[in-house]
Amino acid sequence: MTRPTPGETPVPASAYSQTTVVRFAGPDYGDFVASGGERLRPRLARSLDLAAIEPGCRVLDLGCGRGEAAVHAARRGARVIALDYSADCLRLTRQATALVRQHASHSAAAGIEVDLAMADAGALPFRDGAFDRVLMLDVVEHLLPWQLDETFREVHRVLAPGGFAVIHTLPNRWALDLGYPLLRLLRPSLPRDPRTDYERQVHVNEQDIVRLRRTLKRAGLGARIWLENLTIEQAAWQPRSDAFPDVRGPAYRLFRSGPVRLLARLALRTPLRLIACNDIFAIAWREPER
Q1: What is the pLDDT of residues 243-268, one digit of tens each?
Q2: Are 90 and 84 in contact (CB under 8 A)?
Q3: I want to staple 64 with a disulfide (CB 3.0 to 4.6 A). Which of 39, 82, 102, 170 is the partner?
Q4: Half-sphere exposure of 174 (CA within 13 A, CB side)
């Protein structure tokens, strides 16, 4: 178990105000709202597909953020609880639910329900085995190592037999530390550090596949962990790159270049994928007790 470092404090809930998290999402969230909740960015769509949610599935969206994933899980017929420790994020999730219900047909709207819970991820207020699926999407990097240990132990506890968690975290440390400098050789105008000031504030535990596997194992969770590069899909999906004031704007423009896309896809077929892919995915389940 990882123990707190003296003087180390978790990221406060105030860092996830409604203004901040909406502004950081930029046009991605604007598209979600403008489309009545239909338009979902590739990373969330991919995560929900991995969850294989069926009607009646009990889903915990742990760290629900703006609520897009929770609402789409509910649209698939799941019984969803969206949890966050930020009151503003819960407010956004409530608004997302109302938005999708407003644009759905009368019969479909009746089935779109998301219950909200304010709690700490390391002390979940649910009984053992309460959920068939746990979504942890872009949460891991925001939790200090000792917090993440506590959270994964709680995920282990609340997963039902046969259930599993879908985890997405970004960035891949290896991609930023090793791959990004190579990308700057193609586009020297990219900033030396791709992280924004906000990311440096809230990304307190960026991962690689080895570190994530070790942390899951400590919590008694078996896992399948792999890398993907959804930046390529995101670049094609979101044409309004100029709306991003940070490195995402020029990076997406770069990845819309045919030769760059080809080089990136070729790299994904080689060991270079370890430093070329920025998305870490995991499917985690309770290991049988010995």
Answers
A1: 898 999 988 998 888 888 888 888 88
A2: yes
A3: 82
A4: 17
